Amino acid sequence: MKKDKDKNKDKGKNKRFISVYSQGSFSNFTIWLDTETGVNYIYHTEMYAGGMTPLLGPDGNVVITPREEIESMTKTDEE
User: Fold this and answer.
1) What is the value of pTM for the model shown?
2) Angle (CA) 45 17 51, round 5°
3) What is the rounded distance in angstroms from the CA atom of residue 31 to the CA atom of residue 19?
């Protein structure tokens, strides 16, 4: 039960992972951003199967979003 309490405690706060892009419905691709490290992950689902891996750029390196861009994406209207 502790996890449920922790989950409710974080409501309204920035989440560690945010979805930054999604495409498809039956076969779905979603790009998730780790807001702490900046690493982008691609997640693919089709029916009852799915998989996640770091997103690679054209040079073969992991795509990392700069801290400034992450902060602009996660700003709340409360400020």
Assistant:
1) 0.73
2) 25
3) 6
Please report, for residues 1, 27, 43, 55, the alpha-carbon distance to residue 36 in angstroms, rounded to integers and kept in the order given.
26, 28, 18, 16
pLDDT tens per residue, range 61-74: 999 999 999 998 88
Structure-token pair, residue 61: 């390196």
- CB 72: neighbour CB atoms within 10 A? 9
CA–chain centroid gap for 64, Å, is 12
Q: What is the pLDDT of residue 5?
A: 45
pLDDT digits (tens, 9 = 90+) for 17-27: 999 999 998 89
**Residue 8 in tokens:** 């409710």
End-to-end CA distance of the chain: 33
